[in-house]
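Tokens in:
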């Protein structure tokens, strides 16, 4: 996936609420920018960090810029939570993801009878495969952690994926780690113990767990390598 707009360097100053951050542009001007991530962004909000923006000024927008990348201790990190869906969509269109059966058709943003909306449904062989994508930006000591805040929506997705397996469908929960300094993924049980329990329960019910680490080289991000996970 390639960000088509030119990237604008800046320095992070502070975050206000969930979707606004104050940054300093190279000429010293301060600007409020859109943050395309509703999570806590743990470990990604140190004042003075080097970041990259895209200029997205258009009628109706309150901010002219969108924050896309930050330079972490081991390289660039993509903070845009929609980017993993786009990267996964590209991979599905190009043939699929590791472990998936051959795909005949892909649909995105599909509503299910339980009331949720899942990221993708695939027609594979004679079955349906439901796939949900989660963005991971938090890494500590080489361990990628999810979620970085309590997520009732994430728990609901896992529960519904398990229900779909019980109905005879296939279900996958794909974690995309948006940085390249992780060696393992674990649920952040200290942050959301209910999510950690639901993830283990979903795996026990037959929901497939896949963890893929990105190669982040602005303006491009690509799916790079599989990571192991530990649900205990």
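Residues out:
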């Amino acid at each position: 996936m390639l960000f088509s707009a030119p990237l604008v360097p800046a320095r992070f100053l502070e975050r206000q609420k969930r979707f606004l951050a104050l940054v300093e542009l190279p000429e010293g001007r301060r600007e409020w920018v859109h943050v395309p991530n509703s999570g806590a962004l743990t470990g990604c909000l140190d004042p003075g960090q080097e970041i990259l923006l895209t200029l997205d000024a258009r009628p109706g927008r309150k901010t002219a810029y969108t924050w896309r990348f930050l330079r972490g201790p081991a390289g660039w990190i993509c903070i845009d939570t929609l980017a993993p869906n786009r990267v996964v969509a590209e991979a599905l269109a190009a043939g699929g993801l590791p472990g998936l059966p051959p795909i005949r058709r892909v649909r995105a943003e599909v509503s299910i009878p339980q009331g949720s909306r899942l990221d993708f449904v695939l027609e594979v062989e004679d079955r349906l495969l439901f796939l949900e994508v989660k963005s991971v930006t938090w890494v500590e000591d080489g361990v990628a952690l999810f979620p970085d805040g309590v997520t009732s929506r994430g728990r609901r997705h896992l529960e519904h994926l398990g229900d779909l397996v019980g109905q005879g469908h296939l279900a996958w929960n794909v974690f995309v780690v948006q940085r390249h300094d992780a060696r393992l993924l674990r649920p952040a049980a200290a942050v959301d113990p209910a999510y950690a329990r639901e993830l283990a329960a979903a795996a026990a019910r037959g929901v497939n767990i896949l963890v893929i680490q990105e190669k982040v080289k602005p303006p491009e991000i690509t799916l790079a390598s599989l990571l192991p996970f530990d649900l205990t």
